Every structure is written in C-alpha cells, then in structure tokens.
Automatic annotation (TrEMBL), chains A, B:
Pfam families: polyprenyl_synt (PF00348). One of its GO terms (biological process) is terpenoid biosynthetic process. This is Farnesyl diphosphate synthase. It comes from Domibacillus epiphyticus. GO terms for molecular function: (2E,6E)-farnesyl diphosphate synthase activity; metal ion binding. The keyword Zinc-finger does not apply. GO terms for cellular component: cytoplasm. NCBIfam families: FPPsyn. The lineage of its organism: Bacteria, Bacillati, Bacillota, Bacilli, Bacillales. It catalyses: isopentenyl diphosphate + (2E)-geranyl diphosphate = (2E,6E)-farnesyl diphosphate + diphosphate. SUPFAM superfamilies: Terpenoid synthases. Belongs to the FPP/GGPP synthase family. PROSITE patterns: POLYPRENYL_SYNTHASE_1 (PS00723), POLYPRENYL_SYNTHASE_2 (PS00444). The keyword Transferase applies. Keywords: Isoprene biosynthesis, Magnesium, Metal-binding, Transferase.
Length: 293, 293
C-alpha cells in the first residue's frame, strides 16, 4: 500500500499547484477567484484526478496528457459540493471540517463561484494543448453527459426527491450510479480514452469504475454506522438520524458488507481481464475497500 | 421593420420547437426536465439566437448550421436568469410577468435546473453534427469564455459588489460589457465563425456587437425612467428606488440619449465597413434603438 500512497501524494501536489494556478491567473473579480480557490483548496483525496492518471499510466501515457481534463473534472466535482452545501440544498455549515463556501463568502458568491467552476471546466478542456480537436470534443461530450441532467445533476435531483422516503434497492442504485457514479466512471474512461485503450479494455474499465463507485458508496454507508466521528468528520449515525435509505438499512449490515465484497470482486475481475496489468487501478480498488475516512 | 419582424417570428418558432425537444428527450428526472423547460418556454425575444442566425445568413449559410450553438446559447442565458432570480441573488418573484423558477419549483430545483442547462449547453455543441471537431472546440471555448468567470459570471459578481454604491462610468461599463455584453458578442461571433467570415469582418462584427450590447443596456436604463409599467413589465423607476447606478444617473438623461445614439452610430459604421451588405444586422440595431419593451 505504500507505493500507491506515495504515488498519490506525489501526483496530488503537482496536480493541485497546476489547478490553483489556472484560477489565480483568471482575469476576474478577486472575491470570485478567492471563493473558487477556497473550495478547490479545501482538498479531499482527489480520487477522480488520481483515477484518471492511473488509467492513463496503465496505457503508458504521461500524466501530463490528462492534466487539463483532470482539472476540469475536479472543478466540476468541487462546484457540485458548493451547490449541494447551500441552505436550499443540504444546508451544511461544514465540509471536511472547514466552513462551507457560502458560510465564508455568502450564498450569492457561492452560487456564482459554483457556476464559474462549472463553466471554466469546459473552457479548460477546449483550450487545452494536450489533445487533438477530436479528442477535446469527445472529452467534453463525455464530461458534460456525466455531469449534466442525464448524469450527476439528475442523480442529485433524484436524491433530493427520495429524501425521507424508503427507497427500493434499484432506486438507491439509480441515485448512486448518477450522483457520484457517472463522474467516477468518467475519471477512468477519460484516462482510458486519452491513453488509447481499445474497445474491449474500455468496456472492462467502465465496469471496473461502476463497481468501485458503488463499493465506495456502500463503504460510506457502513462507515456512517461503524466509523468514529473523528474518522468520518461528521457525527456517526447521521444517515439514520436523517432517515436516509442506505445499503445497511435496505440490506442489513451483513448484506451490505457482502455487497461491498461482491462489488470489489467484480471490479478486480474486470481488471484481470484487461489486455495489460493495471497495478495502480488494483491498488485504488483496495484502498476503497479498506478506507476508514 | 416588417421584414425583420417576420424573419424573427418565423425563425423563432422553428428554434423554440427544436430547443424544447432537446430537453423533452432527456433521460432525466421529470421534475428537473419540467423546471428546465418552464424557464426555456418563458420566452423573451430570443435576441441571442436571432443575432447568431442573422450573422450566419450574412455569410450565406443556412440557419440550421447554427441551431445547436443557438440552443446552447439560449440555455446559458436562461440558466443565468434562473440563478439571478434566486432569493440569495436578486430575489425576484416575477420574470416577464410569470412566477420565477424557484417560485414554482422551489429553490433547490431551480439551482439544479440552472446547473443542468449550463452543463447540457456544452454537451449540445460537443455532440452536434453541424460542425467539424475543430469548429466545435472553438465554439465551446468561445462560449465558455463568454459565460464564465472572465465573462458573464464575472460581470454578475461585479454587479453584485457594485450594488448600492455610486459607480464610475468605467465600472458601469465593465459590468455591462461582461454581464450581458460578452454573451451578445458571442452570438454575433459564433454566427460569423460558423459562416466563415474573414478576420477583418470578424473584428468589425465584434465591434458591432459590443456597441449594440451597450446600446441595449442604455435603452434599458432610459426605459426604466421614461417607459410605462405596462411596456417594461416592472415598476417604472425601480433602478432609482434601488439606488442603482445607471447611464442616466451618471450622464443625465440627455447625456444617456446622446451616448445611445453614439453607440448605434458606431454599430452602423462597423456594418458599413463589412465586405458585404448585412441588412438583417442593420435591422437588429434599429430595433434596439426603437424598442419600448
């Protein structure tokens, strides 16, 4: 596990400097830039960019070829957190232990900096020198589809409509596959696409990404019950308190753990069938299974 | 003026059906689609798509070549209105005499349907069969730049920060050139680009678009004082009531009218220097000068 952690650390700091520079050099009002940078800096594990890089390296391509797309991806993930935290949405005051964007900059600026990050993400790919025009168009189409009404925003809408009602397992799965799944799948697909993976490998990697996305979510639900407040950064049991449908609530804890193991097995099966070894992607799947935060 | 009005009417209804179908066929939660369609249907004059079509026809290209880009443009304009109307922003209950999006669907859905329209706009251009990949990338880059932190969102941020303080004329002009100007300029530039205008014509058309954009805004400020409530759809004198800096407040009414005439003259001068006649674009400039609503 040390190799993957070193890998992540090294790539992460390079990636973060590059991304922040993209915002600092914008010709835009200072408050807007500060608000955008505040949430981009708030950190997190940068799982999406790291997955993109890992897929890219599986096909022997340098990480630099995916830098602009990884930035765009992280900006879209970040905008979605800023808007989700708004009083009209989840009304959260804290995210990863820090005040949420609207708590620091006010609601209006938080809405606008989310809009700015979302819009700028597409400009970054469109003006990138990493890709041919064909590649840029394809990446933008894939990313917009993953993030838009048929993807992440649709999942967020379904999640909101499903709150405080008991969901069926297919309804819960629809929400996760869209709200968080589509962007995770894009991370891997973008790396595979830029890396030049063939059709068969691309299908296997899509499978892998869907399964680790669900595994991630199941692990989240389990940690909400079995983790410590210190580990997960929010009160233990908040899903139950909010009467949220979760994997443990629908399947029992034993059933949820079985499903987690099953999703991870399927992710590994997909990787094993690839045309080449993918040790970094293997390690990511294991990290998700073992994470405590 | 009848020719241009007939032109607008005919193109507008074709354009509106096409745009609404793009939303109706989405695989997304119904409420989200209804909220998106509600604001797209709320209408307005569709000035931006019409300017794009007019520029395109100036270069002898069929309107169909610009349909997807015009849809994207109108979706981005519409998302900006939905977010601007939110309680945290301008807190408006009515737009064009109808309840605003959040009044009908609630704030959370209004935020999400704005996000969905913005994201889907880029997907529409990226998946359009109207353009070569080179063209699509260029159009996306131009649109994202016009709509993002260095464009419309930046202008909206500056407008918010400038509220209830007396602005200088350069500050007021910065706001208008960004908040509304950049998207109007994109409308004409996109038509010119798809139409294949040469470099000299492109520069002239950019000038034209900037001047009619400012003229539009000055006329708006004048109408707020001299119009009737019926014509402008909101109480007369609301800018003064809100202590907003406007062209009449900074330049006197006479000065504002002189500046309006000057902007229009410069717009016409730019058109007169074009390599070809542009009767549709001429008529648009005149419509703006004479509009009463």
């Amino acid at each position: 596990m040390t190799a993957i952690k070193n890998y992540i650390q090294e790539k992460r700091s390079m990636f973060e400097s590059y991304m922040l520079e993209r915002v600092e050099t914008l010709l835009a009002p200072d408050t807007l830039k500060e608000s955008m940078a505040y949430s981009l800096k708030a950190g997190g594990k940068r799982i999406r960019p790291m997955l993109l890089f890992a897929a890219l390296e599986t096909y022997g391509k340098p990480v630099e070829k995916g830098l602009d797309t990884a930035c765009a991806l992280e900006m879209i993930h970040t905008y979605s957190l800023i808007h989700d935290d708004l009083p009209a949405m989840d009304d959260d005051d804290l995210r990863r232990g820090k005040p949420t964007n609207h708590k620091v900059f006010g609601e209006a600026t938080a809405i606008l900096s989310g809009d700015a990050l979302l819009t700028y993400a597409f400009e970054l790919i469109a003006s990138s020198t990493n890709h041919s025009p064909e590649q840029s168009v394809k990446l933008i189409q894939m990313l917009a589809s993953a993030a838009g009404p048929e993807g992440m925003v649709g999942g967020q809408m379904a999640d909101m409509e499903g709150e405080q009602k008991v969901l069926t397992l297919p309804e819960l799965e629809y929400i996760h596959l869209h709200k968080t799944g589509r962007l995770l799948v894009f991370s891997v697909m973008a790396g595979a696409y830029i890396g030049g993976a063939d059709e068969r490998d691309t299908e296997l990697l899509e499978k892998y990404a869907r399964h680790i996305g669900l595994a991630f979510q199941i692990r989240d639900d389990i940690l909400d019950i079995e983790g410590t407040e210190e580990e997960i950064g929010k009160p233990v049991g908040s899903d139950e308190f909010n009467e949220k449908s979760t994997y443990p609530s629908l399947l029992t804890m034993t059933g949820a753990k079985e499903k987690l193991a099953d999703e991870l097995n399927q992710a590994h099966d997909a990787l094993n069938a690839l045309s080449r070894p993918a040790p970094l992607l293997e390690s990511f799947a294991n990290l998700i299974a073992e994470r405590t935060a």
